[in-house]
Amino acid sequence: MKLFGSLRSRGFRVGMAASGAAVAAVLAISCSSQGMIDENLELEDSGPATVGQESTPDADAVPAPKVARPRKPRAAAAGRVADVPQMAIERNGAVLNAFYFVRGEGSWVDLAQRIYRDPIRAEDLKAWNPGVKIATGSVVFYRSPTRPSDDLAMKPFHEDFGVPADSYTFQDGDTVEKVAEAKLGSKDSWREIQIANRDISDFAKVSSGTVIAIPPAEVNNGQILEQLAQSQLEGQRQNRQAADAERAAEVARQNPADLGQANVAGTTGSEDGVSQRGPASEEGPAGRLMAAMQGLPVPPQVLAGALAILIGGAFLLRRRAE
User: Fold this and answer.
1) Fewest CB within 10 angstroms: 145, 180, 198, 231, which?
2) Is residue 88, in this structure, part of any structural domain at all?
3) Looking at the domain assignment, is residue 205 inside a domain?
4) Cα–Cα distances in Å, from 141 out to 91, 95, 128, 304?
5) pTM for this model (two decimals)
6) Residues 6+ apart with CB under 8 A from 162
7) How far does Cα 105 stand from its chain's mean position?
8) How far apart are alpha carbons 215 and 45 in whole angstroms?
């Protein structure tokens, strides 16, 4: 029994020692693996160098130069002037002969109020300018209320209402954007200035002292439209009067009986148009009857027949009385 207990105790110690050795081995392997992982990560971060070899820069390698994206020159932007033609255009069955650059308006109703002083025209503007985004600097085409019959020329808003452009002398350091912001209230209105100066192809090359045209900052077209409306109403009134006179003349031509009074006055009147009494206008039944019938719309033939019958009857009565 003592021998068995001694062996059992020794086996326990051996087992414990083996277990401890196994745990130590596992810990060592784990640490070694983590070190290799960290080393591999460092190698991956360091670039294409191989394991166990330091990465050294190639002395003959020349770094690639940075390629800057070319900026669009202002001259190319000036080419957009072609987007605004100089001749009238046709869209959706309407001839458009004027254009307006948006200056802060936020809707089609605002634009209709600005151009026509009539918000109802918003639908027309929207139909004539499909796909146009309402923003400062955008161009809107419309049919001129002052030149509705002009199917040739395309005019800007201020010229359409007879307002001349302003002038500005270019200074050192000026750009078309700066001038637009100073004169028109927004740098986004630079295109409007370019349209007003079609002869200048590149504003980046404009020298100091050059005089350019600037669209007016304000165009009071309300008074012009009011005068135009009054003129149109007066024209319509005159047209109605002429039409009424023409209809009256046509009725008179179709019904000559309506001219009986004028014809009677012509047969009994003098050359100067003043009515004169003839022999039948003497006192008596015939004269009274003739005077009474002059105001009636009766043809002169009827009047002459009635007068002959009256005179004949009076003659017979006188003979009988004798």
Assistant:
1) 231
2) yes
3) yes
4) 10, 10, 7, 72
5) 0.52
6) 146, 224
7) 11
8) 61
